[in-house]
Specification:
By secondary structure, the protein is of the alpha/beta class. It has 9 helices and 10 strands.
Length: 247
């Protein structure tokens, strides 16, 4: 059963959805999903579908929307708000985080930077290790350098037109994801990445894998891109099997 939720967030109201696990004995195993840059909790319908499949028997799932194009530090604060909500309302026996792309960076910072918000397990889906090289790819090298110089950047594409303030880039450059991942010394970690990802280069997934400890897995999706357009169902099956075996 899915229900929509609205939470008072640190920068305004946060909207989301809770998919309660139909299997009562697994209801207090909770997965929180964090979407990527300029994305949404729907994930083009794929995130919602995966949440429904997971909630059939494996775990309760929480999806939510970050404030649009907000800075990374703000996303971390918003994710912590959702974790607080889940702990208070759903009272999880085990809590897992799944971050897609920029949401993966948010999950790394949240999970590895503060023991208060450390989950029982972590899924990194097309997640970066180097925010600098990733956003140089997203914005273009010149656009990225312009942002470092203090200029706002306009991204105009099939997703719409967004003005990204220079402060967005200066903020994300404060974070060293690799250094943070070294703090992940125990607990299950699942890394999924497209073999031909041209936004977050595939080598970044291997770097994340090498830096982290714990019971870890790395799966490259053959011939697939950043959005796992070809093998998203296969990736979803990996997530479901991993959750079931670690819950």
């Amino acid at each position: 059963m899915m229900k929509n939720i609205s939470l008072p967030g640190p920068f305004g109201e946060l909207h989301g959805a809770v998919h309660e696990c139909r299997n009562e004995k697994n209801r207090r195993k909770v997965l929180i999903m964090a979407h990527g840059f300029r994305g949404s909790m729907e994930g083009g319908g794929r995130a919602a579908l995966l949440a429904e499949e997971i909630s059939e028997n494996i775990a309760t799932v929480v999806r939510f929307n970050f404030t649009w194009c907000t800075m990374l530090r703000n996303q971390v604060a918003e994710l912590k708000t959702v974790i607080d909500y889940a702990r208070e309302t759903l009272q999880p026996e085990k809590l897992f985080l799944l971050g897609r792309s920029f949401g993966g960076a948010t999950c790394i910072i949240t999970a590895c930077g503060d023991n208060t918000y450390r989950p029982d397990g972590l899924v990194l889906w097309s997640a970066p290790n180097s925010l600098k090289s990733t956003f140089a790819q997203v914005m273009g090298e010149q656009g990225f350098q312009d942002a470092i110089s203090g200029k706002d950047i306009v991204i105009d594409d099939e997703r719409g037109r967004d003005v990204i303030p220079a402060s967005f880039v200066s903020d994300l450059l404060q974070y060293d994801l690799g250094k943070l991942l070294r703090n992940w010394r125990q607990g299950p970690l699942l890394i999924i990445h497209g073999e031909k990802d041209c936004i977050v280069s595939p080598d970044q997934a291997k770097t994340n894998f090498d830096l982290a400890g714990g019971d870890k897995e790395l799966h490259y999706m053959k011939d697939d891109d950043h959005h796992l357009a070809l093998r998203w169902q296969e990736a979803g099956e990996l997530v479901k099997r991993w959750l079931a075996s670690n819950s």
